[in-house]
Task: structure prediction
Amino acid sequence: MENPINENNMNENEKEFLFFYMQQTWEEMRHLENLRERVSVLILTITSVLAGFVVQQEFTSDTKLIIWFIIILGVIGIFMGLKIFQIHQMGQNRLYKWNEYLESKCGDSPKILELRKEADGKTKKDFKLVSKIPHNFFWTAIFGFIIIIGIIMLTMIKKPEPLNSNSNDIKDKSKIDLPIQTDKVSNKKLDTISKSK
Result:
């Protein structure tokens, strides 16, 4: 079977480089997907543990720092997801360009990209609603949900109860005055004893 690539337009070294680079890009894209999944699971696990601890402590004021840490984890997750998606799309756009170049070297009437467009069109037709949602939407939504939960938890923190100043002042005065009075009495007794001697 003859190679459909036009040998006059693409030399052997260029073909090997193109196929190698395309394969390497696909592997990098799969690695990025796995990386996003692992980091997302890690952030969700840490968030769940911290949120459970805050609930167990009944939203005391001491847990405010932990709740802020939960919110920061959500923000980090959003930016991490967007960055990984940006790198993933860079690889995808490279593959599109390489496919176009490869097809341009495959004779007078190549069908590679045409068949791919037909397959993509059929998929979009079968899944009209879902196909309009961006690839990274759900990852961003998950981390956004973490931020919302953190903000709600901040509003649920119990404020410290104010002390009753009137009753405390009375108690404190009685405690302070009593020792002073007893000291005066004891001093008078000492004076009388010394005079009698």
Q: What stands out?
A: The chain has two domains: 12-161, 163-197. The radius of gyration is 37 Å.
